Amino acid sequence: MEHLALGLVQLLGMLASVSPMFQKVPIMEMDMAPNSFDDQYKGCSDKMEKELKELNRTEFYTNKMYAEAWIKANAKWQSRKSQSSVLKREQAIALMAYTVDRPLLYKEFNAAVREAGRSPEEYLLNFHFKVLHFLLTEALRALWDAQSRRCHNVYRGVGGIIFTAQRGQSVRFGQFASSSQDKKRAKKFGTDTFFSVKTCYGVPIRKFSFFNKEKEVLIPPFEIFEVISVTHEGNSARIKLRSKDVYSKYNCEFLKEKQCKNQTCDFSAGQSVSRYPLWGFLLTAKA
């Protein structure tokens, strides 16, 4: 612990000695993102699907940003509907909604994901993206299975925050983290912290993005990385991460609250069996 504390003190001292502009950028220590809502829905996908139609009535119709992003994504997917896909239609549209540039749904969504795991109550009462979280998680799982579970070397640029970490530390992003297979494109999103990442659970979503030239790979919130190195170039941090494992604090949380109070639930195995669109009103929504 003494070595860890000393290393952090030395790092902060070094950062404080550089330009005043650099000092204005917030510094944040990476960790396992303990407040993240990281449900993988293992063994309950089919049961969860049955709940989502009613659940989505409130989420979709009371969140203007969510509704606008979904409508744009649905229209975009319709223009590409000749594409073959391993995804269900609503999963593909969810990925496209996540990548919409305006409104910036992904920012509001990820901010909520990072905090919704504080407690079961926080998720159940205050997290209003339960449907989107489920669809994105299922979409990444389906794409991961279809690509033979390959690993990818990607890059993630971040502006406005300087992340710090210790070599050998285990960390998670704790959100759906966008990255790119193109280093130059990743740098356009920021260079205050620049990650080089080997992800084994993130998947390419180029076919499902508004901006397919970005060569985006989407990393799930539950993937664990080992910190390989941390260096500094001028006023920027450079962090190299390597996939290590996955970890979820939550599993099937919505169903546990609704169905398992008075009976035993087994979510140890199984997956969705339905391959048909779930909600006509979602898929055909119009402005």
From TrEMBL:
Its EC number is 2.4.2.31. One of its GO terms (cellular component) is cytolytic granule. GO terms for molecular function: NAD+ poly-ADP-ribosyltransferase activity; NAD+-protein-arginine ADP-ribosyltransferase activity; nucleotidyltransferase activity. It catalyses: L-arginyl-[protein] + NAD(+) = N(omega)-(ADP-D-ribosyl)-L-arginyl-[protein] + nicotinamide + H(+). Keywords: Disulfide bond, Glycosyltransferase, NAD, NADP, Nucleotidyltransferase, Signal, Transferase. InterPro entries: ADP-ribosyltransferase_ARG, ART. It is an enzyme of class 2 (transferase). One of its GO terms (biological process) is response to antibiotic. It comes from the Eukaryota. Pfam families: ART. PANTHER family: ADP-RIBOSYLTRANSFERASE, GPI-LINKED NAD(P)(+)--ARGININE ADP-RIBOSYLTRANSFERASE 1. Belongs to the Arg-specific ADP-ribosyltransferase family. This is NAD(P)(+)--arginine ADP-ribosyltransferase. It comes from Zapornia atra.
